[in-house]
């Protein structure tokens, strides 16, 4: 049996209020006032024009407080509408002027001012109502006898019966006098829907609403609708949005009774339920019962993704609005945690840290796909001040070292060279805005210069050894460095390029030296795709490496084109398309039988079946990823290297690193994964 979780009396809400309402008979508006006052309601509505505030000519009546009450206006016992009664409390404001000042007002004095110190007061009180799509203004005339006129004191109230509005609507009320001597009063009243009315049987629009319960059973959530078999109703699940229209998730027209099952992984705080009877002009009830559910908040952060759009903008994808604080930080190789930038850059547009409720919820390196594996680069932070003043410092674990500097840190010792590299364009710009910029400058060449003498001594010592020992040493060194792997792919789209970048980054964590055009765009642009590929292929094969052909629908189409025509077709291609350029020398290796042992093929599960790869390329092993990762990694090892017992462990490591990119490619944020639709028969809803 399901365990009750929330009991929601029609249109789930927090502690529905049960009201017992007074009934008014008839359709005419009316007014009445406190004892001693006289009041009158104008027969027709007036224009809602409050006008400007004018000085009071003496004592005047002014609204001081608005009080509302819900009533029922009934034509019959069971034919009623919800109505809003408004009481306007009045007081005397201002004071009597001295007799000599009286002439100053003359005929301009308000008609409510008769004889000084011994006169009754009159006022025209306006009540203005707005409740989408209705708006109206009514005029109440009030007269207060002189005996009740006491300066600064309340004289009573005038009551208006009543303003009709829709169930569940928001009514805004203003009150002021004509002419207007003071700022108008305002009040907002949220009307209940059928769940809060004890007399719902008297309101026809409430008769057909179903009874809805939400209960939990283990990891599942049940929506239980206890209605008769003849009752037809609509049920919709949607993501409520702070900005923009709701995002529908699931909708069905059903006949009661029904039990709808939701998986706990589908819960997010903005998941709401709308239910209504399938009748003309029926009342639709909306509820959002998961706003405070801890599981819903965990699911929301698990679904959130950071995406770098350009060098100056980023996007946090999430099903619901997230109150979070973003900050840009940096991390040294092997360093933890991520350290804040000092001084900081503007954080409105880029981040790697996202915090909510003082807890780190999300951390991503937005430039990982474009930069490749983590390198021992130096981050230069440029800050810009007034009058084009700028300063540079190098980020280090000890802080940001100004350049140039006489400090003893590594960046300070190399400061002159770093500034030269920055001016010559050898540093990569990661970020740029009005406050400053962030640059990544390579350090490997300076490390090589520093150790040049050490390497020379090692080479002289190695030359003294015998040829056999030298060959063994070279073989051991190659094994330690790992086998070279050249990764070729067709740039079908930006999403597939990110997937390739993730695979290459994961393979770099193994004893493999991976080359891919994504990480060599500068050399690729300078040399051209054909020259760049030929140089990489020759170097890889000379070192005993392997060329990996990563097949996709676009790659298969290009291969078929070459096999059919012998030349590349005229289709548009970008300047970085190395795969198209590579076919000119890849195909001869396969046609002349030189490919086995030097080439392997691969494709991603659910994107391409191995049988779709042209038969010529299936003369070498073709693996599907990630299902055949162990065999794929085994094929990338040195030809004579023994099978390592850690192969399965490494395959699991690569699979974990690849999985987020696969999820993002096959199930972009904001779309449900197959088999995880909301409710029964997800995807079949209308």
What does this structure look like?
- Keywords: Cell membrane, Disulfide bond, Glycoprotein, Inflammatory response, Membrane, Receptor, Signal, Transmembrane, Transmembrane helix.
- Its main location: membrane.
- Residues 482-634 form the SEFIR domain.
- Residues 662-686 are annotated as: Disordered.
- One of its GO terms (biological process) is inflammatory response.
- Helix 9 (494-508) runs antiparallel to helix 15 (647-666).
- The protein has 4 domains: 23-96 and 119-201, Immunoglobulin-like (Sandwich); 208-297, Sandwich (Immunoglobulin-like); 304-444, no CATH class; 484-564 and 575-666, Rossmann fold, CATH 3.40.50.
- The strands form 9 sheets. Strands 2-5-6-9-3 form a 5-stranded mixed β-sheet, with no helix packed on it. A 5-stranded antiparallel β-sheet has the order 4-8-7-10-11, with no helix packed on it. A 5-stranded antiparallel β-sheet has the order 28-27-26-30-29, with helices on one face.
- Helix content is 23%, strand content 33%.
- The chain is elongated.
- By secondary structure, the protein is an alpha+beta fold.
- It is built from 15 helices and 35 strands.
- Residues 1-18, 101-115, 346-352, 568-573 and 673-686 have low confidence and may be disordered.
